[in-house]
Amino acid sequence: MKNAELNQRRQDATPRGVGVMCGFYAERAENATLWDVEGKEVIDFASGIAVLNTGHRHPKVIAAIEKQLQAFTHTAYQIVPYESYVSLAERINQRAPIAGPCKTAFFTTGAEAVENAVKIARAYTGRPGLITFGGGFHGRTYMTMALTGKVAPYKLGFGPFPGSVFHGQYPNALYGVTTEDAMNSLDRLFKADIDPKQVAAIVLEPVQGEGGFNVAPAEFMQALRTLCDQHGILLIADEVQTGFARTGKLFAMEHYSVKPDLITMAKSLAGGMPLSAVAGRAEVMDAPAPGGLGGTYAGNPLAVAAAHAVLDVIEEEQLCQRAQRLGQHLVEVLQQARKTSPTIADVRAQGSMVAVEFNDPATGKPSADITRQVQQKAMEEGLLLLSCGVNGNVIRFLYPLTIPDDQFTKAMGILSRALAH
Ligand code: PMP
């Protein structure tokens, strides 16, 4: 009964605003398996919200952190620098899909990376305006709440938000929003709300994460790049959720023929340690004056050590290829279920960023209820699934890319039964 007791203590000791999804408490974890305080075993398809592409406690990540623990845990990089920060920047600069010379700065959270990308873009362009998209999610700080394109629960009661932020439409085939519609929505912003010459950046997720795993069409990304070039606007790709092999490439922007000016990254960058980064064109990254960027914990040495190991593991275990293979397998399972389940409205994927969307067959409307039932059914058999989507009617799959084949197969069985139910 430890979980029940802990739940009571949690309710008494912590605010309801920190919403908690599961009623059980973690005791330990290994790769794709979690055990709770009552010994219950769970297959983890949440990965701490897309943080564990290399799994819980990957031995190489643990070893790297332990080695760093023996050396030093903190100096504040801006006071006493260390080589591992510089070499991690060098590795990311080599791999990030950025045109020309690239530089990288490290921070701690995803929201902080986005905040800093905005600071850098404004410093470089000397302009205030920011354009993002409906359904987008960029964080819980003030600027990133303003950028986020979903009101409940993220913005409820928290306004006013920073100004000069405008939302366009993100293409969504299922809801009939074409690339042309999306580009027209930006044109309307330029007519009704802001002169394009006052816009510093367009910020988008190449695959919307919290918004429902909506993949940006290639022609949309191209049109955005052209628009940005026409008006001197920077294109910022928020890869906090899509990065580090999840979509079958190290960065999702590698699926496109055009390149962004800045990329934000976090989550799976450091395999469970808090680390984020902004990578971008050197000239743009150098716009803020010395001292303008940083933070006491930004680029923490333990997290940086973990990130080096994560990059090694992604390469050694060919996790990009594995993401493609596992994603294909999962899509087949979902397509098979779709044949007999009238509730499945859509199945979509970019690599292992896979989603299934549920409608109520009686009304044809998005159904958060059916989505919850599938989640609950899977949980009864020990499979932890996350939902997402503006209507809460999408299940997203975020298993560690290192998950053993037999465990993945077992999870597919549980999922099929939950969908059939
Ligand atoms: N951007 C995107 C695309 C995200 O998915 C998230 C987190 N879900 C964030 C930013 C914010 O990251 P963090 O919670 O680490 O601040």
Question: Care to describe what's here?
Answer:
By secondary structure, the protein is of the alpha/beta class. It is 39% helix and 19% strand. It contains 13 helices and 18 strands. The chain has helices at residues 2-13, 47-50, 59-71, 83-95, 110-125, 142-147, 179-192, 218-231, 282-285, 301-316, 319-340, 368-380, 405-420; strands spanning 26-30, 33-36, 41-44, 102-107, 129-133, 165-168, 199-204, 207-208, 214-215, 234-238, 262-265, 276-281, 344-350, 353-360, 365-366, 383-384, 386-388, 394-397. Strands 4-12-11-10-7-5-6 form a seven-stranded mixed beta sheet, with helices on both faces. A hairpin with a 4-residue loop joins strand 2 (33-36) and strand 3. Helix 3 (59-71) packs antiparallel against helix 10 (301-316), helix 11 (319-340) runs parallel beside helix 13 (405-420) and helix 12 packs across helix 13. It is globular and about 55 Å long. It starts with a helix and ends with a helix. The structure holds 4'-deoxy-4'-aminopyridoxal-5'-phosphate. The site of 4'-deoxy-4'-aminopyridoxal-5'-phosphate has 15 residues, from helix 5.
Query: What structural class do the secondary elements suggest?
Result: alpha/beta
Strand order of the largest sheet: 4-12-11-10-7-5-6
Low-confidence region ranges: none
> Any idea what the shape is?
globular
Q: How much helical structure, as a percent, in the residues?
A: 25-40%
Number of strands: 18
Multimeric organization: single chain
Strand content: 15-25%
Rounded to the nearest angstrom, the distance between the terminal CA atoms is 29 Å
Mean pLDDT: 98
The largest pleated sheet is described as: 7 strands, mixed
How many helical stretches? 13
Any ligands, ions or cofactors bound here, and which? 4'-deoxy-4'-aminopyridoxal-5'-phosphate
- Rounded to an integer, what's the Rg over CA atoms? 21 Å
